[in-house]
Structure formats: structure tokens, C-alpha cells
Design brief:
The chain is of the alpha/beta class and 111 residues long. Helix content is 41%, strand content 13%. Strand 1, helix 2 and strand 2 form a beta-alpha-beta unit. It is globular.
């Protein structure tokens, strides 16, 4: 991880409740987010740096229908941050339905 990220993590302090949003800079405003494998690697690094007892991790970056399911198949993300998809009512409905339909272990929505 980069020096600014490490400095921020050090300031959080152990045992304090935290919410971390990972959004790749190159995905902001782009058509494609991080691959599930790349995002899983980043999440693993964040888990190592922060632990998981008091920290929740969200992914943001070109979130569209199917993003959360794909990410959860690769790693235990706690949720996603919906940006541009929130501007399209149909897409927002699909993303929300996907999130609400996911099981406790992040299984894909029930069909």
C-alpha cells in the first residue's frame, strides 16, 4: 500500500470502529472497476493492516449490477458504494436488489 494509505491506517488506531472505502482512482468515472481478483488482493492487504473485528470494508468504483456478487465470490467485502449507478433509477434498483438478495455469506442473489 502507498505511504499516504499507511499513514491514514496508522492514525485510525486499533480497536476503533472504522469504515473503509476502497475505490481505485482509475475507476472513478470509468466504465470498468477493479477485477474481483485485484479487489480481493487489496482487501486482503487492508485486512492485514487493520484487522476485521471493528472494521467494515466497502468497494466503490464503477459499481453496476453484478459487481457486488462478483466481488463477494472473490473476497468478503461488506458492501459497495453506489455512485453513478444511483443516477439511473433502473440500475439503482438492480444494484439494490442484488445487495438485498445476497445471503449472509455473500452468496449470489436467490433466483
Amino acid at each position: 500500500m502507498s505511504k499516504p494509505v499507511n499513514k491514514t491506517i496508522a492514525r485510525l488506531g486499533a480497536g476503533r470502529p472504522s469504515l473503509v472505502l476502497y475505490e481505485p482512482a482509475w475507476a472513478i468515472g470509468g466504465d470498468h472497476g477493479a477485477s474481483p481478483g485485484h479487489a480481493a488482493h487489496v482487501l486482503e492487504d487492508l485486512h492485514t493492516a487493520l484487522g476485521t473485528a471493528h472494521t467494515r470494508f466497502l468497494y466503490g468504483g464503477s459499481v453496476t449490477p453484478g459487481t457486488y456478487t462478483a466481488l463477494r465470490r472473490a473476497a468478503p467485502w461488506d458492501g459497495v458504494a453506489v455512485g453513478r449507478a444511483a443516477q439511473d433509477p433502473g440500475m439503482l434498483h438492480e444494484v439494490t436488489a442484488e445487495l438485498l438478495g445476497s445471503g449472509p455469506e455473500g452468496t449470489p442473489p436467490r433466483e
